[in-house]
Amino acid sequence: MRPLICDENMTKIMHVTPPAGTIDLATHLADAARLIARHYFRTRPDVTSKQDESPVTIADREIELMMRDRIMDRFPDHGIRGEEFPHHQPTADWCWHLDPIDGTKSFLSGSLCFGTQIGLSYLGKPVLGLIDQPITEERWMSHRENETVFGDSLAYTSPCTALNEAVLYTSDPFIFSGEQIPKFDALRNSVLLTRYSHDCYAAGLLAIGQIDLLVESGVFAYDIAAQIPVIEGAGGVVTDWSGNAPQLEKQGNLLAAATAELHAQALALLQA
User: Fold this and answer.
1) Which of 73, 91, 176, 236 would give a disulfide with 231, using CB separation of 3.0 to 4.6 Å?
2) Using one digit for the tens of pLDDT, what is the confidence trace for 146-194?
3) Which CATH class is domain 22-145?
4) Where are the domains of the chain?
């Protein structure tokens, strides 16, 4: 039986409580992924290339296979969308989104700018997000509306409302193409500081108030399904470049900001 998900005005989906056992499972999966990632970290594991020429390691595949097996054993009716293997029941109401090592290039080079992402959505809406850095053992978790936990404490985005005071991150300056390039350049030239790399770790930094803006292009569900609850639960705003809720069913763009005011200013430049 599907849970009730409409508010009194019937205009938007309300927060949905994840099914019993899913929060514990997500935590268990992240704990197990830590062990695998730590085993391969700074060992220069063998690298293969996917169809898009992005790298993948034995650690990526081993972690995702482990997570898939345990999800299918515990919740056989749930769907799974992962980065490394074909989707499993992707149209199921409840769907897990797995990114075993987000930031494989950082992982390969021995950098700490990577993490494991575990998301759970209901009817395409992210309702649970977990970001874990296996080496530093930092973890962000959100499964309640307006709440993100970092370690043992609640996480909050910064109060920044002005572009010229904002710290902006993006995974890679070369992810932008065509008309996106001048739009991103306009935003980059308007902020206090711009940094690159970090992948999902940057979303965690946004959720604890260390940075103020996160802009991405060409992201998939497994890239953002965990980040959306984490950032929004900490008080941030997450949309695509059109100002709409990101769609998990297709590749798209992401704009995340610490405050609504900052988001509006950044969005105006990306839409110009």
Assistant:
1) 236
2) 999 999 999 999 999 999 999 999 999 999 999 999 999 999 999 999 9
3) alpha beta
4) 22-145, 163-271
